[in-house]
Design brief:
The structure holds two protein chains of two kinds. Chain A is of the alpha/beta class. Chain A is built from 17 helices and eleven strands. In chain A, strands 4, 5, 6, 7, 8, 10 and 11 form a seven-stranded mixed beta sheet that branches. In chain A, strand 1, helix 2 and strand 2 form a beta-alpha-beta unit. Chain A is globular and about 85 Å long. By secondary structure, chain B is mostly helical. Chain B has one domain: MetI-like (MetI-like fold). Chain B is built from 13 helices and no strands. The longest helix of chain B is centred in the first third of the chain and has 34 residues. Chain B is globular and about 65 Å long. The chains are: A alpha/beta, B mainly alpha. At the A-B interface, helix 3 and helix 4 of A face helix 6 and helix 12 of B.
């Protein structure tokens, strides 16, 4: 009697649970950095529709935004992210090194260094470009005030610094000259905000500085927000290819049983829909067809990469930004 | 032989002591112990080179110095505010009283952005100070302003209840016996208020030493000039250098602890003198 009852109970529970599985809502947490907020609001909606259509399952993606370094530390300390979409490979590397949540070769798992969209560093200047700023050389001239955040605390600011370095090295020929150039540039920086959004406020609302070094997408956003005609975007002769990478967090998706949907989520970033949304939110799409559609928006500029120019993020971070690195030396008194 | 067992209103000395020590360990001692443990994963040489780095030393000077000045300013003006709120009746007093708590309630980042907006060279206040050659935002003075702002309620709120307890008649008696105003203040008011003033000062100082959110907006964060120690701690965390960050935190803690201890001793001495 008891046996039959337990058998029935087992069958019933199996049937209900498998039914529940088919319709059960699945949840993903995407831990990202500051400027992607608007992009992922749109993208999450598009992905939910796509997943409903192809897998007949409801998916809800939650978002967490903040400074890239802080977000990476949150994941290391146990924030249960299914996917991370951060500003620098360096911060995702740390998730491997500090917590072992992802394999070492995470960046080889998806096309284009796991960066479905790219951006670059451009100049934002005041209306009419009164100081006539055209290229990186103009930033080291006396009397020019440059606004950029502190590279010790801001991921975006590290791209700015490295872009200036790459330009100087190409033009002046040596690391020693590049170092002098960058030191000169930071002499023109009156305020080092702790993050990119803080710098935007300093430049746009406080009216401080002649030129603001900015992510291309942020520059477009500032132009949109404060109205065209308040600022102008100046594209320098050379800049850096910023590749904000994405990855699933293996240990977390395996625990949550969300690997399949998390992988599909990231792959969808590479689809026509995903690429189009990236372009719409001022990120440069990888897909040539979509890129052609947005070609008018993005000025063609010579772009160098971190890997070619600086031997990857780990090396760049160690030499330039860690304590005792070149950036610290620039500010040593008596220089 | 029958002893009075009900010495206190709340029963169970053993139970309440046990609870108090458990609670204190959970909230204070365990996190602090973890901090010290993390800092001392460094070797002694690494520890000293981290905490004695010139950039770090410059930041202690700013953090502790600005916190000290801010607390001093609050000591004087917080006293005035508390005095006015307790001794006078005026229109809108309730509102002013509520406003004092604002620095508690406001997210510190909001406070920092608001203060920067006011004191930036083109801000409402800054535009009048700039021609006089006074630079507040993006200068050490801005750090003092932010730390004064967040410390005000500590002084006012510790003084208020004590002032309310003071009887006006005592001052009147002093006056009728021929004491000058200054004499009354110095001999009658100050001794009674001293412990509360010291507590308020200590709280305002301790709060200011660790302040991050409001300062980073107004200070400009220039290395060696306007960089506070909590910002250096954050830059260490950005490099995933947890031990280095903990080492700097330990330095701040030790400084604050020594200062708080001194203030406690001073208080002890003051209350003994007042009692004698």
């Amino acid at each position: 009697m008891f046996k039959t009852f337990s058998k029935i109970a087992l069958v019933v529970s199996l049937v209900t649970s498998s039914l529940a599985f088919a319709q059960q809502e699945v949840k993903l947490l995407n831990v990202s950095y500051d400027p992607t907020r608007e992009l992922y609001v749109d993208f999450n909606r598009a992905f939910a529709e796509h997943w409903q259509k192809t897998n007949n399952q409801k998916v809800t993606v939650s978002q967490s935004h903040g400074g890239a370094g802080k977000q990476a530390r949150a994941v290391i300390d146990g924030l249960a992210a299914d996917v991370v979409t951060l500003a620098l490979a360096y911060d995702i590397d740390a998730i491997h090194e500090e917590a072992g949540l992802i394999p070492k070769d995470w960046q080889a798992r998806l096309p284009h260094n796991s960066s479905p969209y790219t951006s670059t560093i451009v100049f934002l200047v005041r209306k009419g470009n009164p100081k006539n700023i055209k290229d990186w050389d103009d930033l080291v001239k006396p009397g020019i005030e440059v606004i950029t955040p502190n590279p010790k605390t801001s991921g975006g600011a590290r791209w700015n610094y490295l872009a200036a370095w790459a330009f100087a090295k190409k033009k002046l020929g040596s690391d020693e000259k590049a170092r002098e150039f960058v030191a000169q540039l930071y002499k023109n920086v009156p305020v080092l905000d702790s993050g990119a959004r803080g710098s935007t406020t300093t430049f746009a609302q406080r009216g401080i500085g002649d030129v603001f070094l900015s992510w291309e997408n942020e520059a477009f956003l500032a132009e949109k927000e404060f109205g065209k005609g308040t600022f102008e975007i100046v594209v320098p002769s050379l800049s850096i290819l910023a590749e904000p990478p994405v990855t699933i967090v293996d240990k977390n998706v395996d625990k949550h049983g969300t690997r399949k949907v998390a992988e599909a989520y990231l792959e969808f970033l590479y689809s026509k829909t995903g690429q189009d949304l990236a372009g719409k939110h001022f990120y440069r799409p990888r897909d040539p067809e979509i890129a052609a559609k947005y070609a008018k928006q993005f000025v063609d500029v010579k772009l160098v990469t971190i890997d070619e120019e600086f031997g990857g993020w780990q090396k760049a971070q160690r030499e330039h930004f860690n304590d005792g690195g070149i950036f610290d030396a620039i500010y040593k008194p008596g220089r | 032989m029958k002893k009075v067992r009900h010495a206190s209103v709340i029963p169970g000395f053993g139970l309440s002591l046990g609870y108090a020590s458990f609670y204190a360990s959970l909230i204070v001692f365990i996190p602090l112990a973890a901090l010290f443990a993390k800092a001392f994963t460094l070797t002694w040489a690494e520890f000293w080179s981290t905490v004695l780095d010139p950039q770090a030393v410059a930041s202690y000077r700013l953090s502790l110095g600005a916190a000290f000045i801010g607390a001093l300013i609050n000591l004087v003006f917080g006293f005035v505010v508390a005095w006015v709120l307790v001794r006078y009746q005026f229109f809108g007093k309730r509102i002013v009283d509520a406003l004092v708590d604002l620095p508690f309630a406001l997210p510190t980042a909001v406070a920092g952005i608001a203060l920067t907006t006011l004191y930036a060279p083109q801000g409402w206040i800054g535009q009048w100070l700039t021609p006089l050659g006074i630079k507040v935002a993006y200068a050490p003075l801005g750090v003092v302003v932010a730390l004064t702002f967040i410390g005000l309620p500590f002084v006012v709120r510790t003084l208020q209840p004590v002032l309310e307890e003071l009887e006006k008649e005592v001052e009147e008696a002093a006056a009728s016996l021929g004491a000058s105003r200054w004499n009354t203040f110095q001999r009658i008011l100050l001794p009674a208020l001293l412990p509360a003033l010291l507590t308020g000062f200590a709280l305002a100082f301790a709060r200011a030493v660790g302040e991050y959110g409001s300062v980073v907006f107004i200070s400009g964060n220039m290395p060696f000039r306007t960089e506070i120690t909590p910002l250096l701690i954050v830059t260490k965390l950005e490099q995933y250098n947890y031990a280095g960050a903990a080492a700097l935190a330990v330095v701040l803690l030790v400084f604050s602890f020594v200062l708080l201890l001194l203030i406690n001793l001073l208080q002890y001495w003051a209350s003994k003198r007042a009692g004698a």
